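> example.struct
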């Protein structure tokens, strides 16, 4: 199952009780993530654009419904390019761009791998097999804590490269190039007990964010990050993590990888017309002011929430301060 690029929802449901439901949760609406695409409507009313993705709709005999883009039929791929600009980035480009971030962070090049262009023009990379060393004043803990975000993440190829989203080729752990893969590698190289590893992995996940419009891709992104956790743990300790730890990672992912219209900062299509009551029972409809004027702070839809895990919520006193994503814009 671990070298399969298509993660089967039936397997998740059977092997990790409750995890699929956690991975389908949306914390801005307190409901499940929704399809946000018409691609599945032929399967019935429950698969309409606005319907929530429920575990029973994608498991059992419907276990085939969610599949990575590379396994979708060509016609559907074209529709998705046209409707949502869905073109995925090859792993070698994700790697080159992620390397640029690390070049700056480490103050040197070729930290995790060396990029190579073959004679035929194809691109590969060779993973650096040595333990990663850190520049003066920085440690592996700083690296794990450093925050990363993949905007409009699709299946999140910049975060974890379990497979090349353009070819479907499975990529073994030691060759992965994702932002989260790099954090998990560094953790495995620096701790030896499973307790320490799990604590550090939670911090890595808490500092890795992504958002996406389409519900199916969003779930695939969440599942890929979830499986990356199990795969890295298995590789390091040759056993599975406990269900409690697995569920907590799924919970972090359900917060940090969220469904949003990135142009508006709200849940996709959640803005609505304002209705004004006029004299004599007449009503006037005005479109959402933010949509009309294209002002990101003035939408009447549901603004998406994210969690700042390093701070306490001032209302509940619990770990993790909930903030609207758009309120972070002032820091960008
Ligand atoms: C060009 S693909 C890139 C996906 C991925 N980051 C990659 O590099 O392979 C663009 C993605 O943006 C999503 N998207 C399009 N418009 C969006 C919007 N307004 N807000 C959030 N996501 C959007 C699409 O669903 C699609 O998955």
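> example.seq
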């Amino acid at each position: 199952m671990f070298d399969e690029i298509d993660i089967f929802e039936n397997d998740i449901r059977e092997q990790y009780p409750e995890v699929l439901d956690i991975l389908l949760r949306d914390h801005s609406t307190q409901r499940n993530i929704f399809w946000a695409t018409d691609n599945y409507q032929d399967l019935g009313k429950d698969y309409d654009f606005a319907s929530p993705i429920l575990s029973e709709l994608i498991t059992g005999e419907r276990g085939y419904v969610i599949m990575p883009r590379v396994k979708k039929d060509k016609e559907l791929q074209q529709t998705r390019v046209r409707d949502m600009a869905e073109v995925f980035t090859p792993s070698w480009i994700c790697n080159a761009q992620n390397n640029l971030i690390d070049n700056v962070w480490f103050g040197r090049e070729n930290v995790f791998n060396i990029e190579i262009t073959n004679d035929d023009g194809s691109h590969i990379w060779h993973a650096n097999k040595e333990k990663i060393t850190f520049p003066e004043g920085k440690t592996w803990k700083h690296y794990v804590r450093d925050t990363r975000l993949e905007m409009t993440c699709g299946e999140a190829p910049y975060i974890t490269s379990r497979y090349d989203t353009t070819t479907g080729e499975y990529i073994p752990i030691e060759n992965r190039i994702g932002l989260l893969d790099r954090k998990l590698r560094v953790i495995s190289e620096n701790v030896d007990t499973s307790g320490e590893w799990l604590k550090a992995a939670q911090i890595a996940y808490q500092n890795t964010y992504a958002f996406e419009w389409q519900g199916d891709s969003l779930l695939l992104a969440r599942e890929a990050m979830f499986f990356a956790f199990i795969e890295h743990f298995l590789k390091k300790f040759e056993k599975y993590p406990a269900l409690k730890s697995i569920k907590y990672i799924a919970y972090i992912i359900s917060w940090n990888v969220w469904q949003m219209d990135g142009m508006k900062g709200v849940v996709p299509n959640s803005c609505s017309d304002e209705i004004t009551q006029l004299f004599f029972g007449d009503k006037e409809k005005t479109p959402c002011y933010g949509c009309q004027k294209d002002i990101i702070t003035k939408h009447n839809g549901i603004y998406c929430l994210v969690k700042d895990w390093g701070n306490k919520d001032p209302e509940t006193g619990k770990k993790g301060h909930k903030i609207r994503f758009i309120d972070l814009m002032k820091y960008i």
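> remarks
The mean pLDDT is 94.
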